Amino acid sequence: MIVVFGSINLDMIFAMDDLPGAGQTLLARSLELHPGGKGANQAVAAAREGAAVTMAGAVGGDGLKETALSGLRGAGIDLSRVAVTDRATGTAAVCTDAAGRNQIVVAGGANLQARASQVEDALLSPGTTVLVQMESDPGETAALILRARRLGARVILNLAPAAPLPLPVLRAVDILVVNEDEGAWLGAHLGCGGDAPSLRGVLGGRVIRTLGGDGVEWSSADGSGHQPAPAVAVRDTTGAGDCFVGVLAAQLDRGQPLAAAIRRAARAASLSCTRAGGQASLPTAAETDAALAGAVAGGLAAD
After folding, report:
1. What beta strand segments (E) does the chain contain?
2. Residues of the chain whose pLDDT is less than 70?
3. Model's pTM, two decimal places?
4. Catalytic site residue 303?
5. Which of 67, 114, 157, 179 is 20 to 30 Å from 228 by CA-CA measure?
6. What 8-state DSSP symbol labels residue 244?
7. Which member of 62, 242, 253, 289 is catalytic?
8. What CA dihedral angle connects 203, 122, 132 and 87, to 10 degrees?
């Protein structure tokens, strides 16, 4: 069982020739509305990988709610712990350019009213993986991390977007996932390097740092490692990080070793980069199986 506590958004995706600079107004080629939010994206990625997933979060009682929840419903995720509040449903404005790069601005809205108490103690057993990010109220996220750790659940924190949490909370996390920018921010905050071994030296646990086209590095009690990124034709990187985290959580929840979970998650994330959109780009387990099989058949290194 995976319990995801996090954001549920409506994504407004603007397809651009170029990303706008400060003070610049550009015309978009198109606008599409999709379900999103880091929490929801990661929940859908884990469910498509075959995990049983419960989502805890909040949406507004507005016209944006149904689109924001549609991907979660389509993936068969338990939504009984999603609250409806009097604030607007969280919304993200995503600009993507012809090279697949993106700029994202998020208005948290109802996400900031999600409460750790929506996840009852009975769910936080040693057989549960709790997955959290940083688009909900940090105090509620911290409270859930500490309670989940006390009750024996595995805790995965994706520190995205980068924001401060107390050191005891960070040290209560079993697996920390950051990208390059988040790792650099956290390292500066902790007074250490932003690479995975340096962060682990301060925090303990296991630390994973995603490096975009340069792959993934990790550090654990068993040592450090690096997973190269598969070479793909990038169309849109929106949601690739969430794909990685969701598939990673599903694999670890299934009992897979860390290196194997990272290898599969990296392959799934690379596959998502070949498609447009956030949740729409997330692969199923069968699609990731086929991509891994194709890599081996084509003579590429499986690891």
Report:
1. 2-5, 9-15, 30-36, 53-60, 78-85, 90-96, 102-107, 129-132, 154-158, 175-179, 206-210, 216-220, 223-227
2. 236-237, 295-303
3. 0.90
4. no
5. 157
6. H
7. 242
8. -140
